[in-house]
Amino acid sequence: MKDKISTHSDFVVMDTEPRWRRFEKLVAQVQQELAPNAVVTHDDKIRGHNSGQLRQVDITVKQRVGQYDILIAIDCKDYKRAVNLNEVEKFIGLITDIKANKGVMVAANGFSNTAKSVGEKAGLDLYRLIDTDTHDWQTYASIPVLCDFRGIEKHQFIFHTSTANVKINPREAIEIILYDVNCQPLGKVVNLLKARWNANELPSEPGEHRDIILTKAPTMILYDDKFFEVRVTANIIVKRRLFFGQLSLTQLKGFRDEKTGYTITRGFTTEGINFDEVERSWRRLRNEEEIAIEPLIKFQALDYYTISEE
Questions:
Q1: What value does the CA radius of gyration of the chain take, rounded to a whole number of Å?
Q2: Mind listing the pLDDT tens digit for each residue in 76-90?
Q3: CA 112 – CA 92 distance, rounded (Å)
Q4: How many other β-carbons are positioned within 10 Å of the β-carbon of residue 53?
Q5: How far apart are CA 190 and CA 308, in angstroms?
Q6: What are phi and psi of 239, to 5 degrees?
Q7: CA nearest neighbour of 152 among 194, 189, 210
Q8: CA distance 107 to 256
Q9: pTM of the predicted protein model
Q10: CATH class of the structural domain 5-131
Q11: What is the domain partition of the chain in residue ranges?
Q12: pLDDT tens for each residue of 30-44
């Protein structure tokens, strides 16, 4: 029976390898994606300047920048517990000996508070691996999202005519059909408003918007079996509905900074967003100030109105 092998980039991960070694190779894969122009080496050996001995480094990142050779040393810890102070101090000694320009520790389960404090003071970057692919270190990841839905809460039509003989009941206004100058029907006035909104031709900022000209060309209405020329304007009140939730990520590779909480990545893919599900299950807000965190993504969507048959 052949060993099961999964490949990615220039690294090969074999399921028969020790878990800690597979973790190192996975970290190397992610680092190579973050620095595609650098030379990323797993299980490197560098001679110490102080010790004179070859020192093993889990991962090195080397790159020529101008006239300088940059060396970054990465130490990987696949522990079931948080990395403690002793391991951080050992790594500080290593990067001092090999004169690395930067030291990085990547832990599967984070760092103790003391380890984080000492590591940050020494200039180390302390990370957790973030990877949504299916493996022993698969991570569930999501991002905070604010959905801002907007629609017409109320509307009013005003018919301007040059004759006092036309009297329109406001309750019947939405059923009135408009005609062009050739007496050809254009549609119900309410459907013209919906069509303008669906085409994003009306103001969508929350609040009241008055004196919106509904049709630019001359229009007519049929009243008492006679056609009269009218100018139609509309007043609308736009209301917003705010929803806050977490959108799952289906693809993400990177490192989460233990100090800032930010994730370093070259990109990510979200799951599809179902706006009906958002309205059913996400948290409804009165205003954005109700949430303490800044959403990573803000969606703004306009209601779409079905236009009925004339």
A1: 32
A2: 999 999 999 999 999
A3: 16
A4: 11
A5: 10
A6: -120, 140
A7: 194
A8: 10
A9: 0.74
A10: alpha beta
A11: 5-131, 140-248+269-310
A12: 999 999 999 999 999
> How many angstroms separate the CA atoms of 48 and 62, rounded?
16
Phi and psi angles of residue 195, each rounded to the nearest 5 degrees, phi first: -65, -40
Of the candidates 78, 80, 102, the one whose C-alpha atom is nearest the C-alpha of residue 91 is 102
Q: What is the pLDDT of residues 216-233, one digit of tens each?
A: 888 988 888 889 888 899
DSSP-assigned letters across all residues of the chain: -PPPEEEETTEEEETTS-HHHHHHHHHHHHHHHH-TTSEEEEEEEEE-TTT-SEEEEEEEEEEEETTEEEEEEEEEE--SS-B-HHHHHHHHHHHHHHT-SEEEEEESS-B-HHHHHHHHHTT-EEEEEEE-SSSTT----EEEEEEEEEEEEEEEEEEEES-TT----GGGGGGPEEE-TTS-EEEEHHHHHHHHHHTT-S--SSEEEEEEES-SS-EEEEETTEEEEEEEEEEEEEEEEEEEEEEEEEEEEEEEETTT--EEEEEEEEPPP-HHHHHHHSEEESSGGG-SS--SEEEEEE--PPPPP-
Quick check: 300 and 148 in contact, CB under 8 A? yes
